[in-house]
């Protein structure tokens, strides 16, 4: 941790990721859209003062506000720009030399009641070098002139943002004869003089002129693509304009993926209460542990000095109490949540933007697949989608999704479409697993529902409190939670149809199919009636859970994207269990699922279907159109995979213990990645070890996986305490949980009121 201001890093250091993506040192840069730029600069006046290079920067800047602007202004004259819709004024003032004229213009803003510009960008030197043929006298005069201007800039910097743009290097081989005297050696001398004078001027001043030196680094990489050796190519000057926009606007707009120049957010009331709670839990656990340790020491076996015999303790060592286990869990959770906060809310660790390359995605995928195959073991049972197989499925899918997120592969459409199928496959398993449980067990008790809801939501609720994020932000958990409740409601409402009842009378099977048809009808209606869907989830208290940025559109989009796949999972479970009950499939060890002929035909169809979907997904040209088709066709590849994985007896009899281990903590991995593996709420990458990308990924991944595993254990331990089997005790706990959420809502309302 070097400390310092991320604004200084943004203005002075960085590197290129690839050819065009600029990565500032230690922080993330937001790519501003026109609407965002207008909202930031509303009622603002921006002035660019300098030569043709500053004019280039001026044009790139105003194109962020209005991309339709053409570079048609007078070359050696002032150029005004105004956006009346947002009351934005941006002016370019032609002052190619640092001289008395420039000083007089700057001085006019410091006198009397003249309105000062909100942002002033100044820079010039190449004209002085050119006109005076690179003479030392010109450099001496340049120093005198800057020395006289520096106090005026400092005075303006008290109320305005003032930037001095250092001169970019030139590509000397391409310079015309009239510009040959502009050498990089001369430019360095002028830049050194400017930096020294401006820094000495601001040494004892609270205000400071910001030196915009990052353009030099950008130019060093790109100036050889210049048309004349002097002026930067368009992509480079656009990068400079975007940096300028980030420096000024990030503290106003506070974009999630723009960590540069953003101050650390203040602790909310709920975060302070959570901090106190975890602190008390840690203190409480330490006190109880010390008391137990002292009791153990007093009562443990000791040796009789006279007889040499060992005396037995009068009191046996007490078992760990519920209170101690509870405090132990919260103690560990408190330490883990501190790490979460430090990683993604405190400005302690560095963050970087993602940058996609094919190798950054496909090489790790190949590596983990080899590892997964290496750890192959025999399954305990050979049923279709047995426990080891579903854990394995969840595990490799989760690892692929993690690599997809950290590599930024969402920009590559074929990969995006295949990842959409993996997310759909998780929901398919939700439909398959919960339907199978209720259908076979017939257990619709409150205990089962509370156990599932607690395990799904505990971590997310804690993160909503600690990280100050809405519930819908962790969209996958609301998705599986709502679908679980839909599955439960479908099967629990009268008449309750379970396998035991249906075996006695085949008509019950038709009754269940009728229920599933009703469910499909409701899904179809809601998917094409956005208004009805939004009305349902806009009612309090549902709105508190499903709103994001003041509306439920994001929730509707996420739900609609995989709207049929849970139904497909339920239907598959029903058909499979019916075939299994009638012994129409063979699930013996090493046996094919069907007869050899049928198995071969189905296997061939499955492979063709799997590849056909991949070819279609790889040929996608438009994300919107493909997303429209995805809910209906994603089940093709999911079913094809299940059949390929289960029809051959040998393949069904083995599994990868490596993938299965990750599958058992897949939910925790998916949620934890938001803050302690990725950064800025998944928009960037957490950097624990700067300068060593591979080593950084290894270290952050190790910590991330350990934390996810620990949280999984904490959740399981707390589930046994918070959700007991005894109904009367469970009812009391539910009342306590209701009181907790009521208090949370009360403090949240207070928080919102104080913000407004």
UniProtKB/TrEMBL annotation:
GO (cellular component) term, any one: Golgi membrane
Quote the EC number. 2.3.1.45
Per UniProt, what is the membrane topology?
Multi-pass membrane protein
**Reactions the enzyme catalyzes:** CMP-N-acetyl-beta-neuraminate + acetyl-CoA = CMP-N-acetyl-7-O-acetyl-beta-neuraminate + CoA; a ganglioside GD3 (d18:1(4E)) + acetyl-CoA = a ganglioside Ac-O-7-GD3(d18:1(4E)) + CoA; CMP-N-acetyl-beta-neuraminate + acetyl-CoA = CMP-N-acetyl-9-O-acetyl-beta-neuraminate + CoA
Could you tell me where this protein is found in the cell? Golgi apparatus membrane
Query: Where does the UniProt entry say this protein principally localizes?
Result: Golgi
InterPro entries this protein is in? Cas1_AcylTrans_dom, NXPE4_C
Record field: transmembrane: 269-291, 355-375, 396-417, 452-468, 474-494, 506-526, 561-579, 600-617, 629-647, 659-679, 685-709
- An example Pfam family from this entry, by short name, is NXPE4_C
Q: Does the keyword S-adenosyl-L-methionine apply?
A: no
Broad class of enzyme this protein falls into: transferase
Q: Supply the alphabetized keyword list.
A: Acyltransferase, Glycoprotein, Golgi apparatus, Membrane, Transferase, Transmembrane, Transmembrane helix
Annotated GO molecular function terms are: N-acetylneuraminate 9-O-acetyltransferase activity
Instruction: Show where the NXPE C-terminal domain sits.
Output: 22-72
Ranges for domain Cas1p 10 TM acyl transferase = 253-734
A single GO BP annotation from the record?
carbohydrate metabolic process
Q: What protein family does this chain belong to?
A: Belongs to the PC-esterase family. CASD1 subfamily.
Q: What is this protein called?
A: N-acetylneuraminate (7)9-O-acetyltransferase
Q: What's the gene?
A: Casd1
